[in-house]
Write the C-alpha cells for this entry.
Amino acid sequence: MAAAGPKSPSLIEKIARVDWLLLAVAGLAVGSGVVFIYSATWTSDNPELRDYYVKQLYHSIIGFGLCGTLALLDYRKLLRLAPLILLAGYGILVAVLLFGTEVNNARSWFEWGFVRLQPAELVKLALVLFLAWFLPWRGEKVDNFWTFAWGCAATGGCMALVLKQPDLGSAMVFGPLCFVMMFVAGVKKRWLLMGLVLGAVVAVYAYFFYLEPYQQARLTSFLDPGRDPEGYGYHLQQSKTAIGSGGMLGRGFMEGKQSILGFLPKDVSFSDFIFSVIGEEFGFLGSVILLSVFAIILLMGLNIAVRSRDMRGALVATGVCTMFFTHIFENIGMTIGVTPITGIPLPFISYGGTFVVTCLAGIGLLQSVHIHRQPR
Amino acid sequence: MNSEDRSRQTGPILLVAAIFMSGLMVLLFRLYQLQIGQAEAYAAQVGAQSTRTILLPPARGLIADRWGVPLAEHRGNFDIDLYLLELKSHYRKIHGGLPKTRDTYLVAGVRKTEIVDDIVKIADESLGPYREVLGDRIHIDRDALMLHQRIREQLPFQLKGDLKFEELAVLMERNPVVPGIRITARPLRRYSYGATAAHVVGYVGRPEQALLLTRDDGGTFEAESTGKDGVELASDEYLQGDPGYRVLEVDNLGRVQRLLHEDLPRGGSTVYLTLDLRVQQIAEKAMAGVGRGACVVLDCTTGEILAMVSVPNYDPNALSDPTIWNSVIKDKTRPLVNRAVSAYPPGSTFKTVIALAAMTYKVVPPNYSFSCGGGLFVADRFKQCWSSSGHGTVNLQEAIKISCNTYFYNLGVKTGIDRVFAVGHAIGLGDKNDIPLPRVSPGTLPSREWMRATYPRDRWSDGHMANAAIGQGYVLVTPLQMAMVAAAVANSGAIYKPQLIQRIIRPDGEAEFEFKPELRGRLNIDPKAMDVIRKGMWAVVNEAGGTGKRAAVPGIAVAGKTGTAQFKGQVGGEFRTDNKTWFIAFAPFEEPRYAACVMVEGGTAGGVDCAPRVRDIFYRMFRLIRRNENYELAYTQPQAGNFRGSSAFPDEPTAAPDELAAENVAVSFEGQEENAVPHEEDRMTLPDRSSVQRRSPSLRDTRGRRQFWRSR
C-alpha cells in the first residue's frame, strides 16, 4: 500500500477524481440560495437590497474559483502552512477590531471600496486547517493533556477575538469545531468532557457577566417568544408564523406574504432568516428537500473523511463538515425556536459574500481530501 | 501507520455522522410540527395580521312620493380624512423626525402616560394648505385625535364633516396634495322638503343597539344608521340595502398594499309612498295655525293615503343638532307623535258609524224618526242633547245634519254594541290596518268582550252605549280611521284598506312591493238607507242649519260630518279643557273620489276649527285637478305646537275650482246611481303626463325651493 503512495497524481488525474456529485449538490445549494435571496428582496424599498441576488452570484463565482484552486491543491501541502494561516487569521481578527467598519455596533467588517470582508468566517477555516495540522503533528502524544490544552487555546483565542467584535453567533461555531476534531483525532474523552463542562461554566458566566442585556434577551427569547413580542421574540414569532403558514407545499416562489409584507423583517430575511422565506414559500416539502441536500453534503463530506489518505485529511473533512453542520443547525434552529437567535448565516444559501466564499472553500478542501485520497 | 490509523478514525467519524443526522432529524421533526401540525393556525395568523376588512356602507334607499319626487335622499357630503401613518412618514421625510408629546389617558381606571408622536402638531402643520381655504373652520379635536392614534392609527381620522360645495371647489382647484390628507365623499341623509310629511317619512340616526347586517361571506357589520321613525323605521329592511366590504392587504406598518377582495354594496330599495306631495303640502298649509292636530286625505276609491299631516311637526334634517333634538323631545306638545295614527275620542263624527251600523242591520227603517226634547233618559240617567230646547222630531238625515244627540242615543241603544262593533270593525276601527308606520294606535272600539277584559267589574250597559253613540266614553279613533269612515260612506259601504306605500323598487328595477287596491269589506246596506246617510252628510255642509257649512266649496259638492269630543284633563302637564274637534268629509258628492279627516286638539267645534280646513284642502285639490295647474313644492319649516287650539281659518269666499264646471253647483241626488263609476276626471294626475320622470337619486343640493313639472 505504502508503495503506491509517493507519486502525486497528475492534474488530469486530479480532475478525474473530483467528487462531481458533491460539487453539483453544493452548486445547486448556492444557486437556489441566489433564487431565495431574490425572493426575499424583490419587494424591498431599498434598491440596493433588490440587487443582492446578483452580488451573491458574483460572490459564488469567486467562491467556486477558490473551491477549484483548493481542490486541486494537495491539502497536505496546505497544512504545512496551517500555523501561519492561523497566525494570519489572528492578525486579521485583531486588525478588524482596530480598523474594521462598525455596523450595528459590531466591528466585524473590513471595507475597502467595493470589497467587504467578514474575517471571522475565514478564520473558521483557518482553525480547521490548524487543528487538522496540529493534532496529527502531536502523533502519539495526541491524548496528552497539552495537546488538548493547546488546541483549546488556539480555539479560545479565535472565540475571544470574535466575541470582542462582538459576533456571538460566529464565536459559538468555534467550540463544536474544536470539540469534534479533537474527538475524531483521539483526544482523551476525559479532557473532552472536562472541556465541555468548562465550556458550559464559561458560557453561563459569560451570559451573566459579559453579555449585554440585549444579547441576553436575544438568546433567551426563543424559550418564551411571547415575553418580548416586539423585540427578538417578535422576530421569532414572525419567523415561525412564516414557516408554519407555508404548510405542506408552501405559498409558492415570490408569494411569501410574511416576507413581502415585511412581517419578516426585510433587513434580515435575505441573510440570517432566509430559511423563514424558504419555509413559507416552499413549505414542508421544500424544508425536507433542503435538509436532504444538507444531509447529502454532510454525509459525502464525512465519507470523504473516512476514506481519506490520512488523519490530516480526515480531520480537514470532519472540521469542514462540523462547521457546516453547526451553521445549519443553529440557523434553521433559531428560525423555528429550537436554538437561541444568534446572527449566523445558513451555509450556501444566506446572503453574505465572505461566508459563501468560505463555504465553497470548505467544499474545495473536501474535494482536495477526496482527490488526494489513497488510490485504490 | 495507515490501516491502524483508519480504524481509529472511522468509528468516531461515524459517530459524528450519526450526531449530525440526529440534529437534522430534530430540525425536521420541529418543522413537521410547525408546517404540518400547526400550519392552519399559522396561516390564520398571517391572515389576521396582514388583512384589514373595511365596511362599504350601502346607499340608503330613497323615499319618494307617488310620482317619484324624493322626500328622503342621499346628498354628497365631503369630509377631510387624515391617514395618520402617511402623514407621519411624510412629515418625517421633510423634517427628518417626528415631534413627541406626552399622552396621558386612563386604562381601566389607571392613569397612564406615554411619550408618543405629537400627531396634533403634525396634523396641524400638514393641514396648512387646507387652512388657507377653510381658515379657522378646521378645528382639530386634540383628545379625539390622540385617542385615534392610540387605538386605530391605521384607519382614517374624520376631521371635518359637511364641507361646503364652494369650499370643495376651491380645494379641488388649488389641489393641495399632502400625503395622508384626503377628501372623502360620504352620503348623508337629506330630507328634501324639510318638515313636509315628517311624521310619515321619519328620520334616521345611529342605532342604539348594534344593528348587525350580514355580509355575503357570513361576517357581520354594524349598520351606521337606521330608521328611527316613520317609513324610515318601518321599511328599514328595504331601505337599508346590503353592505359591501373591502379586504385590504396591509404590510407590517399597516400601509395598504393591495385590494384582496371587494364586494360592492347594494343600495337600498326606493320606497314610493302613496302620498302626493302636492296634496300633502296643501294639507299642511291648511293645518297651519293649528296648535295640535292631524289631517288625512284618502283616495276613497283605492284606499291610497294622499296626505297625512300631524302638527306640531319637525324638520328631520335638524334633529341631528343636539339642541334642536332636546327641544323637540322636551316640547310638551310632543312634535314627534304622529297624531294621524294616534287615538282620540271621535265625538259626533262617530254618529256616522252608528248610522251605518243601524242601517246595515236594518235596526230601524231608513225613514225612522225620533223626537228630541233636549235629551233622553238612558238607563235611568238623563243624557243631554247639545240643544237643550230639543230638535223636535227628526229623521236620520236630519239627525246627521244637525248632529242630534238624542236621536243617536236612541239609535245607538237600539242598535246595540255588538252591531256597532261589527260594523266599526269592518270599517277598520280598533285596528292598526297594517299601516307601515311605527307606533300606530289601533284606537279603541269597545265591545262586550273588550269590557270584560278591560274592566272585569263592569259590564256593557245602555249608558255606555249612549255615550259611545255620540263618540264619547270608551271609543277612541285615529284621524286615519275617521277618514276611512268618510270613505266608507262615500263608497256606499265599500271599504278599502288604507295604504301608504305605493311600490318598493330595488335598484335593479325589480319591484319588491306593488300597490293593489284591497277591498277590506263591504257593508251590506240597502241603497235607500245608504242614500239617507249620504244625504245627511251632504246636508251638514250644504243645507241651512248644517253643522259643517264652512266646508262648502263652490262648484264641488262636499259631504261631511262634524264632531267635538268634550275633553277635560291633564294635557301637557296642566289640567285644561282640551276638546278634540273633528271634521270628516268626502267629495265630490256625486262620484266621490277623496275622503278627508281633519282633527284639531283644543279646538272650539268641528264646524269651526276643522270644516274650513277641509274646505281649503278640497278647494285647492280640485283646483289643481281641474285647472291642470302647476304646484310649486317648497321646503317647509317645522310648525310649532301650542295648547290654544287653532287660529281662525279665514272663511274667504272662493270661486269654483273650475269655473267651467259651474253647472255642477246644482247638485242633484237623482242621477247618482246610474253614474256610479268613479269620477275619472277627478283622479289626481300630473299636469303634464309626458313630464313625469322618475327622479334618479342625485347628490345635488336640493335645498330651497324647486319648480316642478313646468308644463310646456
User: Anything to note?
Assistant: DSSP finds 21 helices and 29 strands in chain B. The first helix of chain B runs from residue 2 to 37. The interface with chain A takes residues 2-3, 5, 8-10, 12-17, 20-21, 23-24, 26-28, 30-32, 34-36, 38-43, 45-46, 49-50, 249-253, 257 of chain B (CB under 8 Å).
